[in-house]
Amino acid sequence: GIGGAFQYGLQVSIINSPAEYIKSFIRETWLKRYGSSPSEEIITLVWSFVVSIYSIGGLLGSLSAGYLSVRFGRKKAMLFTNIPALLSATLMGLSRLCGSFEMIIAGRLFSGVCGGLALNIHLMYAGECAPWKLRGLIAITASTATAIGKFVGFALGLREVLGVDALWPILMAVNALPALVQLLTLPFFPDSPRYLLIDKKDKEGCI
Fold first, then answer.
1. Confidence band (pLDDT; 50, 70, 90) for 207?
2. Cα(103)–Cα(80) distance, rounded to whole angstroms?
């Protein structure tokens, strides 16, 4: 769940704390680039793109989840979700250094793709790997992981942690940590028995 529903909950919550800092960064970048201070309407418009483009990425990720999980299997598809997560962390983490608020927008798009993929494939993978007696219990771990991800995101956004002007790029890049943990641990887990039996026709592998 750390690279699935947890990742989604984390990405949804970390954007709230640095809102004013990112708006100030947009204002400063615009002033340096164009020589004039942007109006509040432009700041609000750019900030709206930063927030809402996550949903567009989520839609793209959700639409791709079914194809990827059948084409590559649930486990490999879950590993694939870490690519947009790491891309988004890199873009947003380096946005201030590069002086580009467009990198934040692109990073949020990739975060959305990751969230859309991870949330859907996590449910499939966990449900299909669970013993039938525990299937209902395992299914609700997605909600639990999402809630924990939101809690961690809000906690990291506190002023005492990363919620300050100097550290907001690190806060926006923190979703790289669960992606790296999943990349290192998931290869040791089995693939979905349903995928092996129905899609791959591997009767021995699914036992």
1. low
2. 21
d(CA 105, CA 29): 14
With 90 as the cut, is the pLDDT of residue 28 above it? yes
Q: Residue 126 has what pLDDT?
A: 83
Least confident of 4-18, 122-136, 192-206: 192-206
Instruction: Convert the chain into a string of H (helix), E (strand) and C (coil).
Output: CCCCHHHHHHHHHCCCCCHHHHHHHHHHHHHHHHCCCCCHHHHHHHHHHHHHHHHHHHHHHHHHHHHHHHHCCHHHHHHHCHHHHHHHHHHHHHHHHHCCCHHHHHHHHHHHHHHHHHHHHHHHHHHHHCCHHHHHHHHCHHHHHHHHHHHHHHHHCCCCCCCCCCCHHHHHCCCHHHHHHHHHHHHHCCCCHHHHHHHCCCCCCCC
Joined tokens for residue 132: 């039938």
Per DSSP, the three-state class of 79 is: helix
